[in-house]
Design a protein that fits this description.
By secondary structure, the protein is an alpha/beta fold. It is about 45% helix and about 15% strand. The protein has a 7-stranded parallel beta sheet, sandwiched between helices. α2 packs across α14. It is globular and about 65 Å long. It starts with a strand and ends with a helix.
Length: about 375
Amino acid sequence: MKILVLANHYNTLRIFRRELLIALARAGHNIVLSIPPCDDENRRMLESYGTRVVFTEFDRRGTNPLGDLQLLAAYQRLMREEKPDKVLTYTIKCNIYGGLACKWAHIPQYANITGLGSAFQSQNKMRRLVSFLYQISLNRARCIFFENVGNRDTLVSDGIVRAEQTVVLPGAGVNLQEFAPSPYPAADKPLRFLFVGRIMQEKGVDEYFGAIKRIKKEHPHTQFDFIGWYEDHYEEQVKILEANGLIHFHGFQLDVKPYVAAAHCVVLPSWHEGMSNTLLESAAMCRPLITSNIHGCMEAVEDGVSGYLTEVRQDESLYAAIKHFIALPYPEKASMGEAGRKRMVERFDKDMVVKQTMHEIFNR
């Protein structure tokens, strides 16, 4: 069987879907990946999974309707040339324009909605537009995978998709061998909190920066590490915070495991998530979590057992949780991490997610 996979970046597949692609190829299927152009090294990496890569020009962040029409036309050509039996689509533009191309070509689509993004955070023109595009593009989708119940319920209650089309997976899952338990940092080490992700408003960094300033006054030896990259308007703020000794910014890191291993706790006060891989990976490595009480984050935490849930956009709630964690005796901090690992083994094993995904693809 030929399966065409549409994605908006090679990292979408390399980081989150590697195990699924390998499993599909090993099962004897012909897997073709459509991604925007990338360098030879990353193309070869994807091909090492047993796939073939074709490049499709793609403006991930563009809002020009002409560009989107060109993407739709490119996907239509791709359907004619490749003649796939089934199509998997990831991220919003691939879901929408790939979905339309599948619909018109009468090819089964299996869409993956990994989060609703900022468009669904308020009732505005953008939400209405995205809702309309999802409605017309996904109404023939054979299966629509969601990463949390909240996102699924939003689209079903809004009449955008039908409940019988949907399947909720525990995110992309976590590779329990790759993200293995890591010894908890020694009790005599300075307490370290880690943030992994884009430094942007919707990740809750404004609330986090405010909490950090208060905590550092009370516990000056506490360290706050940041990994990722920042949106341009945060550049000056990050530099000032680092110059004042409030945070340590390490930039983008391809391998986050050494930083997670060095941390006592991982913090993500996000406003919205599909399913945070950062939280799953950190918990798998036996690290307690502090995160928002929202779908996409809350699933990773048993409140008070493997970490703490805080009210979204509430800096006082975030500050209180961090302060509470600092006050915990060392053995309780470590046992929180162990509880987090147990939760990942029971609910988020990547192998389980791959098997469930393949079952839906081949039985719908």
